[in-house]
Write a structure and sequence with these properties.
Layout: H1 2-32, H2 38-53, H3 60-72, H4 78-82, E1 86-93, E2 96-101, E3 104-107, H5 115-127, E4 139-144, E5 149-154, E6 164-169, H6 178-183
Antiparallel strand pairs: 1-2, 1-6, 2-3, 4-5, 5-6
Helix pairs in contact: 1-2, 1-3, 1-5, 2-3
Length: 188
């Protein structure tokens, strides 16, 4: 029970820090954010921890790692991006995620903590790939060239029910033979 409460508390702190960075530093980060430039984000995390959580008994190194992992990876969607048989991911709302694997769409069990965490995730996906999404520009398409992703995101006022996120994964191994795909044990 104590472990679960610590996990929830850390998750809330991580969400707060990510929201703070996106709300207050998105212009700077959209221009400079890259995997080689984690130091900017790390310094912003440290600044937020000092200014807001200095009196808390938290593991700052762990919080910094969690924020960096979420900021520079794709959080709960990363395992699907890494799965060679997944070609598309569609997130309808914070608790409804579909994955197209081996040509078939299926809903998965993962979900975001709540709508706020999901909105911050969508905004971060756009931000870390050089875009900016806001009420004036509520629909954005960006590319993550390193991971061969095309990311389409939409927020209010276009998507009024929930933010929407679609990730298309372009696999590098396009020369694999059809027979290998159809009769591969891993495919079944």
């Amino acid at each position: 029970q104590v472990e679960d409460n610590l996990s929830i508390s850390n998750n809330n702190i991580v969400n707060d820090i990510i929201e703070y960075i996106i709300n207050n530093h998105s212009t700077t980060l959209a221009e400079n954010l890259s995997k080689e430039n984690k130091k900017i984000v790390e310094n912003l995390v440290k600044e937020r921890l000092i200014n807001k959580y200095s009196n808390s008994n938290i593991d700052t190194a762990k919080i910094i790692k969690l924020v960096l992992d979420r900021f520079f990876g794709y959080y709960i969607l990363q395992k699907y991006i890494d799965d060679v048989f997944v070609t598309d991911i569609r997130v309808i709302d914070y608790k409804t995620i579909f994955v197209k694997k081996k040509g078939s769409w299926n809903q998965v069990d993962e979900k975001f903590q709540d709508g706020k965490e999901y909105l911050n995730f969508v905004r971060n996906c756009v931000l870390k790939n050089g875009g900016k999404i806001n009420n004036e520009k509520p629909v954005v398409v960006v590319s993550d060239k390193e991971n061969n992703l095309r990311i389409e995101a939409g927020i209010e006022p276009v998507n009024v029910v929930s933010p929407n996120l679609v990730i298309r994964i372009h696999r590098a191994d396009i020369n694999q033979r059809l027979e290998d795909l159809l009769f591969n044990d891993a495919f079944v």
